[in-house]
Specification:
Length: about 80
C-alpha cells in the first residue's frame, strides 16, 4: 500500500541542485525533492510520496485531508 500526504512548503531552493524544499508535516520538518514540479512557492501544499512532491494541492482540500488524518489519531470515544 502506498501513502501520499499533503504537506506545506516552508522553504524552496535548498539543497545542492536547488530543487529541494523544506516542508512541514504536523510540526515535523523534512527536506524533499521538488524536481517533479515547476514553480513551487512557499505556502503551497503538495502531495508528498517517498520524498518527492508529486503535485500541488488546493489549500482547502489539504486542510480537509489533514483534518481527517488528525481525526484518525484521536482516541476512540467510550460509549455506555
Amino acid at each position: 500500500m502506498c501513502l501520499a500526504l499533503p504537506v506545506k512548503v516552508i522553504e524552496v531552493g535548498c539543497g545542492p541542485a536547488r530543487d529541494m524544499g523544506l516542508v512541514d508535516l504536523g510540526g515535523v520538518k523534512k527536506e524533499i525533492s521538488l524536481a517533479l514540479l515547476d514553480d513551487v512557492q512557499v505556502g503551497d501544499y503538495v502531495i508528498l510520496h517517498v520524498g518527492y512532491a508529486l503535485s500541488r494541492l488546493d489549500p482547502e482540500e489539504a486542510g480537509r485531508t489533514l483534518a481527517l488524518f488528525a481525526e484518525m489519531n484521536e482516541p476512540p470515544v467510550a460509549t455506555a
